[in-house]
């Protein structure tokens, strides 16, 4: 992220080589700011139907009518007071970096509350253009707006928009350019706070002008005065003003007339401005019908049904993910193991490459990366459903429903959202802890996020579940996710009693209306989430696969992989793991490499168990025949996936018959693990230390390695303990066959 | 005229807010300036203000769900008990 240097609004028009027009996009949470920027500039900023998706400012550069415009997406805020991290980010940007213009995105279905922020934005002395967004929903509700009335009363341009339908965008940009061309003519109206306040503001202005004239060059004048009136501590410290530097008689007079709390007095004044305006310009029919959202909420938030519904929804997600993606995974597996390996060998043979490079390419790269790629369909399918949950509005309900359980661990329901995001990938989950107001909550939540089973752990489950639990794969995987959640609760309670004593702060959260995400936006955001797994497979995992190959083949010329460096390391580790049921050097070695990224566990297994060259002779096929087979089997995969959906809902059981096992990996695993030790292994992979990227994210968010250290320590202990309980307990119960 | 804490309204009931207290119990539910720390969100900023009509949507757990204007706002019962309404 690049920081711009501060500049003033008027050099925008005067400079000869025009620099981009800097436009800040500000507004309440969940009003469609990011959606609007995506629609205008073709960016792919994260969008979701709950408040607090954008936690950091993001930028987009594009051109309209030959003018370069830089849009800055700010976190959503309800006001510009300095109490939450989002408010501070938005406010510091607006006040210190002074954009040329503010586009205030307003939710047309909720005008009054949104106008409260508008009134504050207008005080910054920066031209404002209002995007009256979600106009489609407002129209559907039968709302009508007096747009001209808003424009004249506020002195800001107003354009109705619908970001999801891409309507009103050109008009908005035209208005932005028109306003930016003549900023002086488009100064927002100065709203009156009433005689008492205004007199005090004038007095305060005189004093400051006399004693601290430099301040007015740094801050917008009216904003500065109003904030100081409100007793803004943060601002006062920022400008190094002693508490008693402001003449007390100004405030004294006000306090006598209006009570002690000037902040509340000013807020009330602003609010009545907003309310009055909304009354003037918005016409709605006075009928109160029960909306769809409320009908759904009655069921979904029901005291008894809430949690079961949440668990059932998650179960369905895993079941669908697994059933839909499996045929495609199998297809990639066949391709990588069959034609692809074959033709690589042939090609390398043709150019006369030495034998060891053939082995590196087939056993190292193709087995290592290929085995990870096999799981790309699963990961994408999972991301698709997570994106759906995010876009529908259910995310915020999950937070509501889980609030009680979260209280047990000294957190409140809002912390549940970062945890849920962790299912996609732990890293964005860690960053999402920023929406929590309190530092203690942030750290505690971040410590629990690694227990949420991320997409990278799926490959391991899929491999083992495919080998041992082919009849109910979705349920077994779901049980691992639920185990992660349950342990998060237990650990939360533990931390609350030890490291983080104290009460959860109060909970306030807005629940958005349910919305049907559009298919295109679902696909787009699924791709955004999933693509980094692909990139990872192409870079990081490729490199690690090659490295692992060397570790498996050094010292040069080792007979058995067991005696290679990696094998030796695995042998050292193995005894530690034997109480858990998988004390083999192969399992240990895979787990060692999996620290870098959990997918690598399967990549390494693929390399370890790769058949020696020549073991897997296939009848020679011509290149043409191979191509044909690739296409035909892909068609089969599509069909199978479709019929799996049908059988998911119990209508038929077309795809029930298991195919013969082709992958040598699956077969070998079946020999070295039992169902019980396989489950223990999956539990271990779920829990053992967070990957390197999560470590870096934690370090970034909390400024030291301390909390990562805590996570590392408790997770290692937990992983070992839980896997042991599963394995030993299972054996006692006689499941160890 | 009957005043009661918002947190005691039953589902489907409506009322008008007459008082919003956000302070801690020790300072008697008033709005003590000193009590406000970074991290405290103001229910008022989200539209729960004196004079507003509210409807209780869900009051069956430690969170209550309210409808104010067009937004649904969840707050914990502790906060809800400090808001007084008139039916
Ligand atoms: N019907 C309708 N829905 C919209 C419109 N614009 C945005 N949405 C939906 O509103 C939700 C919120 O959109 P975001 O772009 O994430 O909102 P945001 O303002 O960036 O939110 P924060 O980052 O949390 O502050 C998403 O579900 C969008 O699909 C619109 O014009 N009409
Ligand atoms: Mg956003």
Please give a structural write-up.
The complex is a heterodimer of chains A (737) and B (87). Chain A has 737 residues and is of the alpha/beta class. Chain A has three domains: 21-186, Rossmann fold (3-Layer(aba) Sandwich), CATH 3.40.50.300; 195-258, no CATH class; 309-506 and 519-560 and 600-661, no CATH class. Helices cover 61% and strands 6% of the residues of chain A. In chain A, helix 17 runs antiparallel to helix 25 (519-538) and helix 25 (519-538) packs parallel to helix 26. The longest helix of chain A is centred in the middle third of the chain and has 45 residues, at 306-350. Chain A is elongated. The two termini of chain A are 55 Å apart. Chain B has 87 residues and is mainly β. Chain B is 6% helix and 37% strand. A six-stranded antiparallel β-sheet of chain B has the order 1-6-2-3-4-5. The chains are: A alpha/beta (737), B mainly beta (87). Chain A binds chain B through residues 78-79, 81-84, 109-110, 112-113, 116, 231, 260-261, 263-264, 267-268, 271, 293-294, 297-298, 301-303, 306, 400, 403-404, 407, 412-413, 437-439, 505-511, 513, and chain B through 31, 33, 36-47, 49-50, 57-58, 60-63, 65, 67, 69-76, 78-79. Bound molecules: guanosine-5'-triphosphate and magnesium ion. Residues 27, 29-35, 47-49, 51-54, 75-76, 133-134, 136-137, 162-164, 391, 515 of chain A line the site of guanosine-5'-triphosphate.
């Amino acid at each position: 992220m690049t920081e711009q240097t501060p500049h003033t609004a008027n050099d925008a028009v005067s400079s000869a080589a025009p620099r981009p027009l800097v436009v800040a996009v500000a507004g309440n949470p969940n009003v469609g700011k990011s959606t609007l920027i995506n629609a205008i500039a073709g960016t792919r900023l994260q969008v979701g139907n709950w408040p607090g998706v954008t936690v950091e400012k993001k930028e987009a550069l594009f051109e309209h009518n030959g003018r370069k415009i830089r849009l800055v997406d700010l976190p959503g805020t309800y006001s510009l007071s300095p109490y939450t991290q989002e408010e501070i980010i938005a406010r510091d940007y607006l006040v210190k970096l002074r954009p040329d213009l503010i586009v205030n995105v307003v939710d047309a279905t909720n005008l009054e509350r949104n106008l409260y922020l508008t009134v504050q934005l207008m005080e910054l002395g920066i031209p404002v253009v209002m995007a009256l967004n979600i106009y489609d929903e407002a129209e559907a509700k039968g709302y009508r707006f007096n747009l001209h009335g808003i424009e004249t009363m506020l002195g800001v341009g107003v354009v109705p928009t619908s970001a999801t339908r891409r309507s009103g965008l050109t008009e908005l940009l035209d208005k932005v350019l028109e306003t930016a061309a003549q900023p002086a003519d488009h100064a927002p109206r100065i709203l009156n706070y009433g005689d008492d306040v205004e007199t005090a503001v004038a007095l305060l202005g005189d004093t400051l002008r006399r004693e601290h004239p430099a301040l007015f060059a740094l801050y917008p004048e009216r904003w500065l005065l109003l904030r100081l009136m409100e007793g803004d501590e943060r601002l006062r410290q920022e400008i190094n003003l002693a508490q008693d530097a402001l003449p007390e008689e100004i405030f004294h007079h006000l306090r006598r007339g209006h009570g002690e709390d000037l902040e509340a007095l000013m807020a009330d004044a602003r609010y009545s401005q907003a309310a009055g305006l909304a009354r003037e310009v918005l016409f709605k029919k006075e009928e109160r019908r029960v909306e769809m959202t409320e009908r759904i909420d009655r069921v979904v938030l029901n005291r008894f049904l809430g949690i079961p519904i949440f668990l059932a929804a998650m179960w369905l997600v895993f079941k669908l993910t697994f059933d839909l993606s499996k045929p495609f995974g199998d297809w990639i597996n066949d391709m990588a193991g069959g034609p692809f390996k074959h033709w690589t060998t042939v090609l390398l043979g043709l150019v006369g490459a030495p034998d060891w490079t053939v082995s590196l390419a087939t056993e190292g790269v193709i087995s290592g990366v290929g085995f990870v790629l096999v799981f790309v369909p699963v990961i994408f399918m999972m991301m698709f459903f997570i994106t759906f949950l995010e876009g529908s509005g259910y995310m915020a309900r999950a937070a509501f429903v889980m609030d009680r359980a979260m209280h047990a661990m000294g957190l409140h329901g809002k912390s549940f959202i970062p945890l849920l995001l962790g299912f996609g990938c732990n890293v964005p989950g860690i960053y999402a802890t920023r929406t929590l107001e309190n530092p203690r909550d942030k750290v505690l939540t971040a410590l629990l996020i690694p227990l949420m089973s991320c997409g990278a752990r799926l490959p391991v489950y899929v491999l083992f579940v495919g080998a041992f639990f082919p009849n109910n794969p979705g349920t077994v995987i779901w049980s691992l996710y639920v185990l992660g959640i349950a342990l998060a609760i237990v650990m939360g309670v533990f931390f609350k009693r030890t490291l983080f004593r104290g009460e959860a702060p109060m909970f306030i959260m807005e629940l958005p209306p349910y919305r049907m995400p559009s298919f295109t936006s679902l696909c787009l955001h699924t791709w955004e989430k999933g693509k980094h797994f692909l990139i990872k497979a192409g870079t990081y995992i490729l490199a690690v696969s090659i490295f692992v190959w060397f570790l498996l083949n050094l010292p040069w010329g080792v007979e058995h992989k067991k005696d290679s460096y990696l094998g030796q390391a695995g042998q050292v580790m193995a005894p530690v793991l034997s109480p858990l049921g998988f004390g083999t050097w192969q399992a240990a070695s895979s787990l060692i490499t999996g620290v870098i990224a959990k997918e690598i566990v399967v990549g390494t297994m693929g390399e370890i168990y790769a058949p020696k060259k020549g073991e897997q002779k296939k009848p020679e096929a011509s290149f043409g025949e191979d191509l044909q087979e690739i296409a035909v089997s892909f068609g089969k995969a599509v069909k199978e996936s479709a019929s799996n959906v049908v059988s998911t809902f119990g209508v038929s059981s077309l795809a029930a018959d298991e195919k013969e096992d082709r992958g040598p990996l699956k077969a070998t695993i079946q020999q070295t693990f039992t169902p019980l030790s396989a489950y223990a292994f999956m539990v271990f992979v779920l829990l053992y230390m967070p990957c390197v990227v999560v470590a870096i994210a934690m370090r970034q968010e909390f400024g030291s390695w301390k909390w990562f250290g805590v996570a590392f320590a408790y997770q290692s202990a937990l992983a070992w303990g839980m896997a042991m309980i599963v394995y030993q307990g299972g054996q006692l119960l006689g499941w160890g066959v | 005229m009957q005043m009661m804490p918002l947190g005691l309204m039953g589902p489907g009931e409506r009322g008008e807010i007459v008082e919003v207290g956000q302070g801690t119990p020790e300072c008697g539910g008033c709005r003590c300036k000193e009590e406000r720390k970074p991290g405290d969100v103001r229910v008022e900023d989200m539209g729960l203000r004196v004079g507003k009509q509210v409807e209780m949507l869900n009051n069956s757990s430690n969170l209550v769900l309210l409808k104010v204007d067009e937004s649904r706002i969840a707050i914990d019962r502790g906060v809800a008990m400090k808001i007084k309404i008139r039916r």
